Give the backbone structure.
Amino acid sequence: MSKIKMLNPIAELDGDEMTRILWKQIKEIVLEPFVELNTEYYDLGLRERDRTDDEITKHAAEAIRRLGVGVKCATITPNAGRMTEYDLKRMYPSPNGTLRAMLDGTVFRSPIIVPGLKSYIPGWVRPITVARHAYGDVYKAVEMAVPGKGKAELVFTGEDGVQRKTIYEFSGKGILQGMHNRLDSIESFARSCFEYALDTKQDLWFSSKDTISKIYDETFRETFQRLYDSEYKSRYEAAGITYFYTLIDDAVARCVKSQGGFVWAMKNYDGDVLSDMISSAFGSLALMTSVLVCPGGQYEYEAAHGTVTRHYYRYLKGEKTSTNPMATLFAWTGALRKRGEKDGNADLASFADRLEKAAIDTIVSGTVTGDMAALYNGACTVVDSESFLKAIAEKL
Ligand SMILES: NC(=O)c1ccc[n+]([C@@H]2O[C@H](COP(=O)([O-])OP(=O)(O)OC[C@H]3O[C@@H](n4cnc5c(N)ncnc54)[C@H](O)[C@@H]3O)[C@@H](O)[C@H]2O)c1
């Protein structure tokens, strides 16, 4: 059988621990026998980040910007324990943080829906994708403990003078917090959300609390509405999808009663909290995919989970582990499909579809990794990661 060719490369960002092992197995077992892989390889494993003083992460971000498509393996974000374990020169920042900051993207997280695997909310039969604004608000807040009686004020010193507003007249001790956001960041977030929903042909929801926060949240609501009316309305109507704004409390209630099948854009804190609720409700972190969509049209795909350290230590002792490769596999199919779409390479895009279908069919027919057994309706066979991937290749 002749292999499918790739006209242009994708940026391949390797990572750490158990996911690094899965990465190699996925390439060898389900990709390389069928596709002539064309990638620019960047090793973001912690040892290489340490050797290059983290320059490798910046080169990888530049490659994604240049090539338009990247696929990333999970990586360790070092803490004090990792400093000793890897004898690091310094405590490097999270590679995902560096990539996001350099590419100015929005992260979209969606579950892989497999018929027969239980969801804690049975009505959710289609994915719910959470888009979280990843700048500002409480994550960049300035806080103060108020020592006693006094007046707290918001003060803005601009080029044309000073504006003041009283926050509160304290009669005793208390606490204060100041948050901010930038219009350019809100606008680029909104644009990424509109583009992603169009690209995946799903409705877009945005929710906030503009009835209470009449300037801050209202600015988010107004930005989404203005962009929709001026740039997206006709494209959404042509695609048969809708943009919908509602208050966050109403959105939560509607979401639980929905069948899924939409993109839900949220402010930073709301997205932080609700993305964990939604991924848990869908069943497993190992079935959650993630894509960074950049205003420049670049896409970086990855699994939402980490490097599965516990399994890696068992692997190092010579055990075969039953680590779930689905989210990492879907990161590859996402990237290959997008490369195919960008290059007009229908063979590559349809290979990605067929590989995803083979993976889902493998689970439906009862071959699963350990984490999925608990979610499975009926009898199933638990196999190690390598056997699971071989079963997918067989179906393919
Ligand atoms: N995107 C990323 O690169 C990313 C994200 C989160 C954590 N991390 C890194 O990963 C390392 C481990 O972190 P963690 O333990 O908090 O998160 P983790 O996602 O690796 O594991 C969390 C829990 O989920 C289970 N799990 C996750 N993925 C699984 C899979 N594919 N198959 C079976 N079980 C799975 C694990 O066994 C564990 O119980 C840390 O060094 C952290 O910095 C990286």
Remarks:
- Residues 1-112+290-396 form a domain with the Isopropylmalate Dehydrogenase fold (CATH 3.40.718.10).
- The radius of gyration is 23 Å.
- The mean pLDDT is 95.
